Amino acid sequence: MSPSLSGVLSRLDRFGRLLENVALVTMLSSMIVLAVGQIVLREVFQTGIIWADEVLKLMVLWLAMIGSVAACRDDRHIRIDALSHLLPQWLINTTRLLVDVFAAAVCAVIAWHAWRYLQLEIEFEDRVLVDTPAWIAHIVVPVAFVLISYRFVVLALKKARGMIFGEDEDTTG
């Protein structure tokens, strides 16, 4: 890979990480402020914000999806690793490569079906928060699964490169 392309990809990766981190911190902070505010309003003033509960539910969805993308960026997603201490390293690497390829395919299929569901929401003009189109609130699902699938493909390519050239995965990207 040329140095200029590598530099551009590195900057894009850093920008994506920054965007994910800012989104996660903003979303979680907003959720905490809104939830605490809603509790105070209900307990102290016997009132509340009508739309707060529905917004909090949607924010949980967004936080979970963005958090999933962030977890996959550094290969820090949930992994069941029961046999890694018994198998030789080449078999562990091969298994992880196959699992990443499989996960990328599954996430791509989920993204496709989430996109199809989103099209139905648009067609039927579903609404959330009184008058907001539901597809706006739910677009995070197909987008996140596309990004997760992309991340698994990148992880698989890094692992394959490491296996072919005998490099450590951490030094390839």
Structure description:
This protein is mainly α and 173 residues long. The chain has one domain (3-171). It is 76% helix and 2% strand. It is built from five helices and two strands. It has a two-stranded antiparallel sheet with strand order 1-2. A hairpin with a 3-residue loop joins strand 1 (127-128) and strand 2 (132-133). The mean pLDDT is 89.
How do the strands of the widest beta sheet line up side by side? 1-2
Give me the secondary-structure category: mainly alpha
State the separation between the terminal residues, measured CA to CA.
11 Å
Tell me the overall shape: elongated
β-strand number: 2
User: What's the tally of helices?
Assistant: 5
Please give the largest β-sheet.
Answer: 2 strands, antiparallel
- Report helical residue fraction: over 70%
Question: Could you spell the SSE succession in H and E letters?
Answer: HHHEEHH
Whole-number tally of structural domains: 1
Report mean pLDDT, rounded to a whole number: 89
Low-confidence stretches: none
Radius of gyration: 20 Å
Strand content: under 5%
Summarize the structure.
This protein is an all-alpha fold and 173 residues long. It has helices at residues 3-45, 52-73, 89-124, 134-138, 140-165, and strands spanning 127-128, 132-133. It has a two-stranded antiparallel sheet.
Helix and strand layout, with pairings?
Elements: H1 3-45, H2 52-73, H3 89-124, E1 127-128, E2 132-133, H4 134-138, H5 140-165
Helix pairs in contact: 1-2, 2-5, 3-5
Fill in the keyword field for this structure:
single chain; mainly alpha; 5 helices
